[in-house]
Specification:
Elements: H1 4-13, E1 21-26, E2 29-34, E3 37-38, H2 44-49, E4 57-64, E5 67-71, H3 74-82, H4 84-87, H5 96-102, E6 109-116, E7 119-123, H6 126-134, H7 136-151
Antiparallel strand pairs: 1-2, 2-3, 4-5, 6-7
Helix pairs in contact: 5-7
């Protein structure tokens, strides 16, 4: 009998590659993008200021780490530009659980997020996020250890 965890791992491994999804290497590592936009075009600052994902405006962008970041307002863009590391999602916007549990990169959805100790984390989907939420400190510690290797692959 297949466990839920094994089924989830198999499902993640079987995800097809999409030509619109890309991995850009910036000066400090890798950033997940969709159609050239980080966080699928979601404003990273809004997670902190509005407590929810907010669609960015393709006319208000900032290029950082080889990716284009979209913002809902010029004020949010300026905040990000002043300190991108404070607002950018951890692990280049890849799934925090996949980095921790599998030592691999997986896509994310802007709706699957959490801010923990002032850091933004994204996950693949609701089920993966529920698993990650069950042991956030453990998964964060594991991902923090694994990310340097994955970042530079």
């Amino acid at each position: 009998m297949m466990t839920r965890r094994r089924a989830l791992l198999l499902a993640l491994a079987a995800l097809p590659a999409s030509p619109a999804l890309a991995l850009f290497h910036g000066p400090s590592g890798a950033v997940f993008t969709d159609g050239g936009l980080a966080i699928r075009g979601t404003d990273p600052v809004a997670y902190f200021t509005e407590g929810r994902p907010v669609a960015g405006d393709r006319g208000i962008t900032y290029d950082w780490m080889g990716a284009t970041w979209a913002f809902a307002s010029e004020a949010n863009r300026d905040r990000f530009a002043a300190n991108p590391e404070a607002y950018a999602p951890q692990y280049g916007g890849f799934c925090a659980w996949a980095v921790a549990a599998k030592g691999s990169r997986a896509t994310t959805q802007p709706e699957n997020w959490a801010i923990v100790d002032g850091r933004l984390f994204l996950n693949y989907d609701d089920r993966v996020q529920a698993t990650w939420n069950a042991d956030r400190p453990g998964f964060i510690a594991a991902a923090d250890r694994r990310w340097p290797e994955l970042r530079d692959e």
